Amino acid sequence: MTSAAGPSYTLIPNQKYRRSSRRSRQCCNISDTDSQSLSTLGYFQTLPLEIFQMVLNYLSVKDISMLCLVSKTITNRLINYISTSSGNRRLLLQDFHNLELPGKREGTHILEHYKSLGLLLKRCTLLLPTKDRLKYVHKVLSEVSCFKLNGCPSPLHCLGLQCYGMFLQILTAGWDELECHRVFNFLCELSNLPRKVQTVVSSKPGSARKLELRIRLYCRSVLLNHWIHRSDSAFWLTRILKPWPMVNQARLLYIIFGPVSSLDGQVVWQKMTEGPTDETSLKGLADAIKLLYDTEAREWTADDVISLVDELSVVPREWLMENNARLLILSGNNICFTFMASKAVNGRAVELARLMVFLTLVCEKDLYCMDWAVKMMQKVCKVFSAPGERNNFLQCVENAFAHMIMDMLQTVLAGDRDEEDSSFLNLFHLINAQANFHKEILYLTMTSTSNTI
Asked: Using CB atoms within 10 A of its CB, is residue 195 exposed (0-12), middle (13-18) or buried (19+)?
C-alpha cells in the first residue's frame, strides 16, 4: 500500500524568505544612498577631501558661495572647509587697520570681502532655523576681536565694526521682522549693549566718554549705516531706542547722531548750549528725526517724534533757540510745522513767537528763502481757533523782534566783543532778517490785494 504520509523533505518557512529579502533591500538602499551622495558631488567625488579644499583656495569667496547652491553634500563639505585652520585664515581677514592696500580705495577690499562672506554663510545655513544660523555664525566669527563692542583698542582707526555691519546686512537681507528681532536680541546678548546703554544714559553726560564713543560706533557701523531701504534703517533705530523712556531716548539719540570732536571722535555735549552751531553738527540728528517721522517707522506717532524733539532740545541743558530753529529747518517742513502747531495748540504763543524770529534769523544766516518763513507763519496762524489768539501771536512776533534787537544792541554798546565780533554780526543778521521777513509779508499782501481789485 502506498503510504499516506507527506513528502520526506522539509519545507522552509516563507518568513525566512521575507527576512532575507528585507536585508537585501536594506543593503540596496545603503548602496543607493552612497551613490546618491557621491553623485551630488559630481566630478569632485574623485578628489580626496584635502584636494577639494585646496581647489577652494583658488576660488573667490563669492564663487564658493555659489557652490552652496549645488547640493547639501557640497554644502556640508564647505562647512567643514570653513572650520579648518586654512579656511579660517582665508575667510576671516583681520587687516582692519591696514587701510592702504595697493590699487584699492581705502577699506573697499576688506568691506567687499565680508560682504561676500555674509553671502557664503547665508547660503551655507539656508536650511537651518534662525536660532541655529545665528549660533553657527557666532561660532565662525567669535575669534574676530574687532567685531566686538569693546574688542578693538583703536576703534576710530578700525574697519572691523563696518565689516561686521556689512556682513550682517547681507546675511539678514530678506529676513522677516520676527527673525530680525531675534538677530537684534542675539547681538544685544553678545555685546551686552543694554547694560552699557544704561550706564551712559543714567550717568552725567561726558562722564563715560570712551563708552559713549564705542556705543556710537557700534550702533552706527553695525546696526544702522549699511541699509539700502529707509524702512530697514527705521526698524533698527527703533529697536535701539524704543526699550528706553523718552528722556533716555533723547540722550541716546544725541550720543549716536550728535556732534563729535574732530580730534578724538568723542561726543561734544556743550555744542548746542555754548553758541550757534552749523548744519554739519545737526544733520545727523535731523536725518534720524526724519527717519522716525516717516511712514516706514510704524511704531512712532507724530506726537512721539515731537516729544522726542522737545526732549532733545534740553540735552544736556536747554539749547540756544537758534540751534533749535536750525534743527527744525533741517528736519523738514512737516516736522517743523507739527512742532510749532503743538506749541500753538498748547497756548505757548510767546515761546512760539521767539522761535518764529529765530527761524527768520537762520534763514538769513544760512541763505534760505525768507518766503519759506512767511508761509510757515501763515500755516501756524491757521492753527489758532480764534482771531484774538492769532492777533496776539502776531503781536508777540513783533515784540520778540524788538526785544531781541534791543538785547543785542546793548551787548554791542557794552563793548563785549570777541575776536570774530560775533555780537555785532548777530545784530546785523537779525536786522536784515526782520527787514527781509517784512518785505516778503508786504509782497504777499500787495499780491493778494491786487488780485482782489
From this structure: exposed
